[in-house]
Amino acid sequence: MLVLLAFIIIFHITSAALLFVATIDNAWWVGEEFFADIWRVCINNTNCTEINDTFKGYSMLQAVQATMILSTILCCVAFLIFVLQLFRLKQGERFVLTSIIQLMSCLCVMIAAAIYTDRREDLHKDNANFYQLISDGTYGYSFILAWVAFAFTFVSGLMYLILRKRK
Q: Is the pTM of this model over 0.85?
């Protein structure tokens, strides 16, 4: 049981770390001479422009920003609730509250990554002055980490749903 508990804790912390990196790091769309994320666009690693309300489609990026931040917060809250439930739950009860919050985190990261996947091309076309080299770009590791974090939080939420407190 102790090994299973350690695995679940490590898995949850890994999920939170993936969410932090995917939210903060500047690599959602990358090319040889530029990289962009949900916060800014950088060309030649020196000329960085913050994404603000002058961007067309800024509200879409705000939705991605908000859901990624919410996902990260929910994942951290789920971990704290898990630790509290570990000491407070009676033997044989399930970690349902932790599971619900973790699955909400999963839903938020899925929404953010799906919005970015769907609307990225329109965003780049509408803001061609900021995204000059978009045809040479590919999805970056932060975008991929967001989808990996989706899978991790989903599996973690299911594990909490199945997990019972034992002696």
A: yes
Cα gap 153→104, rounded to integer Å: 9
DSSP β-ladder status, 47-50 and 34-36: unpaired
Which of 125, 109, 113, 111 shows the shortest CA–CA distance to 157?
Answer: 109
Measure the CA–CA gap between 4 and 64, rounded to whole angstroms.
34
Residue type, position 87, single letter:
F
Whole-angstrom distance, CA of residue 150 vs CA of residue 104: 11
SS3 132: coil
Lowest mean pLDDT segment, chosen from 22-26, 37-41, 99-103, 153-157? 37-41
Handedness of CA 45, 47, 50, 52 (dihedral sign): negative
